[in-house]
Each structure stands twice: as C-alpha cells, then as structure tokens.
Amino acid sequence: MDALLFLLIPVGVTFASERTSELSRCNNMNNESFRLLEGEAFYFSPISVNNPDLPEEDFTWYKNNPQFENITTEEENSIHYHGGALFFLNISSTDSGHYTARQTMPSGNCQLHHVTITVYNTSSRGQTTYGRDQNSQLNKMLTCPTPAQQTCETFSGIFTWYKDGSLLQGEHEPKMRINEASKAHEGIYTCMCTWTHNHREYNSSASRRLIVLDPIHHGDVQILSPVNNEQFVDKGYSIKLNCSIFCGNNVARSCEAIWTINEKNVTGMDGYHQTISTENENPSKYTYSTATLTIDKVSAQDFQHVFKCSGEGYYRSAFKTVTLKARESAIPLVIGCVCVLFASVCAAVLIKCFAIDLALFFRPFFPLSGNKDPRMYDAYVVYQAEGLQRATEDQLCSFIMSSLPSVLEDKFGYR
User: Fold this and answer.
1) What is 123-212's CATH topology?
2) What is the annotated signal peptide range for this record (predicted)?
3) Which residue has the higher pLDDT, 120 or 3?
4) For 75-99, what is the mean pLDDT?
5) Per-residue burial over 315-333, b = 16 or more CB atoms within 10 Å of its CB, e = otherwise
6) What are the two backbone dihedrals, phi and then psi, of residue 26, each rounded to the nearest 5 degrees?
7) Are 236 and 220 in contact (CB under 8 A)?
8) Does domain 22-120 have CATH number 2.30.30.230?
9) From start to end of 57-139, where are the E strands?
10) How far out from the chain centre does Cα 319 lie?
11) What pLDDT sits at residue 72?
12) Whether residue 11 has pLDDT greater than 80
C-alpha cells in the first residue's frame, strides 16, 4: 500500500506540471469579475469569445481557486458549461472563486479566458452594484447593467425593476426613464431578469445606485477682484492680493482662480505664497474661486512685475492684470498742514490784537462805497497852547488848519 502511494504521488506531480506547462503556452485574455447574490443564476460568456455556441470540444472549463475542479457539461450540476458559456444555477457562497476556460483555436493555438466570481448574501445587495448613475440632467435614463441585460436578451427573459427592494409597477424594459428627477428618486435600482433554462425559471439581477446632482450651469467667467489695474502699496511691507472669480452654479470642479507673475507660475518663487479656494455658496449654489497671493516684503522689483489674475471655467476663461505703485509719503502733507495751521493761528492773533491798526492801515486801499454823506461835521482838536515854542506852535497850527482838514475831507469824505 505504501509503495503504491509513493508511485501515485510522482504521477500527480507530473500531471500538474504538464498542465501548467501546457497552459503557459496559451494566450491569456483579460480577467473579468462579477459580484453575485446567493440564490440567483448567472450566465457568463467571455467578451473575447465572439460566438459562445462554438462546439463544446473547443473549450475546457475548470475552477482553479480556492482548489482545482473540473467543470462538466452535465446540466444536472448547478455549474456547467455549453461551449464558451458558463452557467451558474442557484448560486451559493461556495461558488466564489476564479474560473478559467481553455479554448482551442482552429489554428491549433489556445486562449485562456478568466472570470472571478464573488458571492454575497441577499442582505448585501448594496455591495453588488454596477457603479453609480450620477449627473445633473433633469431627466434620467437608467440602463440595466450588462450581465442581467445580456442574459435576458439571450434567453428572451422578462425585465422587472425594483427601487431599494420595492417593485416598480409597469417597468419591463431594459431602460427606465425618470422624469424631473429629485433627491427623492435617489437609491439602488435593481434590474431583475427572469429567464428559463431547461424548463426551469431563474432570476438574474444587477443594480445601479442613482445619485441626483444639483443642476449645473457653466457661465462666463467673471473677474470680481481686483477691480483696478493699479494698486498702491508701501515698499518694504507685506501685502495680499485677491483674485476672485465667478463661474456659474455647482461647477466647483471646473472653476479655478490663479495668480501668475510675468506669465510664470508662482509656485516655488521665494517671497511669494499662493492659496486657492473654490466652493459652491449655499443656498444659491453659486460657484466662486479665490486665489490669495501673499508678498512677504514688497521690493523695488515688484513695481516692475505684471501680476495676472486668471480665471479658468469649463468653456471660457478671463484675466486681469495688476501693477503695483509706490504710495507717496504722507510726511510732506503733514508738514504743509502744520504750516497752514500755524499761519492761521498767527493771523488770528494779529487780527485780534491789532484790529484797529490794521483797519486804518488798509482803509486807503479799500475806500468806502455808496452815496456821499451830505451832512457837515465839526472837528474839535484839544491841545496844549501855553508854554510852546514858536516853531512847535507853528507846526501844530499847520497840522490843525491844513493837514488834518485835508486828510478828513479828501481821504475820508468828511465835509
């Protein structure tokens, strides 16, 4: 008995090595993978096989993971094949694994077709969906995923649709239209195909998750800031330049504001830092993007640079250039204001203290206007007449009798 066992082991190893060597000479086709539910059926025909009804002698199917198993054409078995098509009837969790078909070509060459099957229980339907149907279109068109649709078309099956496990009445086509879709229509939509094989009915399902996105509108890019083409700054100080744009509604993925300096990207430039934020504003859903350029210390070279604010949208773009100008010093203005204030104070003091003297001084230059006074006036002069010298008395008499009347009458209009 032990001797026989030792003889069989080399034979098994030799058989496995021969199979591995034989398969290594075949062309490997792309692997396909599917996630299925327990209790359902699955019909699989490799994409690379143009005609699944080829003679069965051209194909050899086997399961090679987790352990090697030959698959036959006997229809009593839940897993069997006909030509290039593989049938799974009443799937169970033990059917998970990797399956390979060896196809012999008319030329004598061979091809290997691969498929990986993962089986879930019925409570895990959300893990078996075939992608998401998500867009911003108002009316949705759901298409039955290929595995279920192909099965129904091959076996003339009947389509039935479900939403989150609930039957949708009157839906028996491979495509289902949802008009004016809203958030209430979101969920998992399952396309169930009921088909017949060997006079027995089987169900094959495939699901998609519907996500209703908010409406999208790609508008013309508008530059909101900067407003002016020149900005006055102080040399030696840090400043921030904002580039803000508007792109439309719910278009954050295709809306971006960015600063460039002399048509060059700011990234990596010493002394310059840029941050970009894009968001959809609630509740309007307007999309804004803002790029903030920080200059650590304004230098003389910055007054020679051209700063460009660019906005990129889905269809259009826009830009605006900005140059920096040195802000004039406020010291001369302050000195001028102080001087004016000082002069005003001095003038006020002079007017207050010497008002009469100033009035008499400027009176000859600003004669009184209006009608002449017809009245006669007498001028009385009080002076000391006794004890005066002759020359002083003569001078005083000349002033009183000649000079004073002349001034009063000729210059001031008295009569």
Assistant:
1) Immunoglobulin-like (2.60.40)
2) 1-16
3) 120
4) 93
5) eeebbbebebeeeeeeeee
6) -95, 155
7) no
8) no
9) 59-65, 69-70, 79-82, 85-88, 97-104, 110-120, 129-135
10) 17
11) 93
12) no
